[in-house]
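Thread: "does anyone have the structure for this chain?"

Original post by V.I.:
We have the sequence but no experimental structure in hand. Need at least a predicted one for the grant figures.
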Amino acid sequence: MTTKCVVVAVLAALLVSLPGSAQTASDLLQKGIHAQEATGDLDVAIAIFRQVVNSSPTNKDLAAQAQYQLVLCMLQKGDREAASKELAALERNFADMPELVAKARKLIPGTSALLPAPWGESECEQLNIKRDGVETGEYLYYSADAFLNASRGFVPNASAPGHRATDFRWELKTKNSTRSIRLTANSDTMRPVPKEDSFPYDNPRFNSDDDLGDPLAVPFAGPATDAEESVFLMRRLPLAVGYKTTLPVTSNQYAPHPMELIVTGIESVQTTAGKFNCYKVSFAAIGQTLWIGVEGARPLVKFRSGNVEAELVKVWGSEDLLASLAALAKEAGGELENANVEPGGIVRTTLRLASDLSLFVTIRKIHTSPAEIAQALQHTLRENTKDYAVHPGSLQTRSIGGQQAISCVLEPKDRDGLEYEVWIRTENLSVELFRSTNRQNIGVLRWRFDPIIDAIRIP
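Reply from O.Q.:
Generated one for you, tokens below.
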């Protein structure tokens, strides 16, 4: 044992032996985690975790957690052999805690095969962009949704391999442009399905409103915005410290180009969405680094390229966005019709009260900090009224279900009639209610629908 290790062990032992410190095993565990994550002193952390394991026979939960942290520490040091030994100790001494053991096993994959998909039937995640450390209002957005095309044999819940497909989508929103790619791939192999199986869509399907070229998008060229959907593939790789492989990347390339990645370490990353232990994945050839969560759904937590960073602010799952609206429609004697879930966290439906009275509803999962909601609503108003004139006196700032909202009556510049628009914004959702009508019926529309709209409660 080196002199440093002896000193560290003695110091850690003193932490639990000094009577004046009155530190519990729980206190020590937190001190070890602080040394591991905040100060990066892995030797001190390891010594403390060993003390907790050895001194907590009556508190098995604490001892097991300390043993798990030892596995993580060894991986952070790049010593996979030592990590395997600590895992074996966890399996041997805490076999009655299968969830923690399974969690630790995932840290040391024993195969090169893809890991199970962590996103379930539906997932969206948003990372907000900073430039030189300053928030910009820009974001990266990723979504994965089960794809169903019965005529082609893809059934999301089918047990037979190859019968499942997933819609993967990313979107990059900068101040200048919005770009996105949607790819339908086999859920098991991650390989794109033939175009005829993704009908009626191209595969992949590209969208952009960028006519002049967007320099703000350049730092993201690479795996983060890739036609091969590399971010999703990385989340299924058996990552470990020292792991290397190459991925085909088609960002800013006319054909897939092999690009090497290496996992250089495990780091703790604090974001708006929470604190994550992450694999640090480096693409040295292009100067990009991505942090992929170690545990749970293994999300993309952070991205860095030069002076540009993106950090996770929100992850959504398969939440039912229409439940409260459906209940309200039923109470009012109406119903929701034609509910349609789209890639990118979008749900569209029709709220119908009578055969001649309905509103079209669009809900999108998108994160907005509370301080920026009013500004986001104004931006939405500007973006959606470029080809309209706002009817004089109709623009209202409202509170709907305790959430900030605006509404107005719009006059299309190229046709007759009027359109009634309501936008509601919460921290995690954007809601649009819309209806076209003639000038004679706009008053009746508002008279009958405004009480319904005011009663909406957004989850």
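V.I.: this helps a lot. Residues 1-22, 150-162 have pLDDT under 50 and may be disordered.
O.Q.: and The two ends are 57 Å apart (CA to CA).
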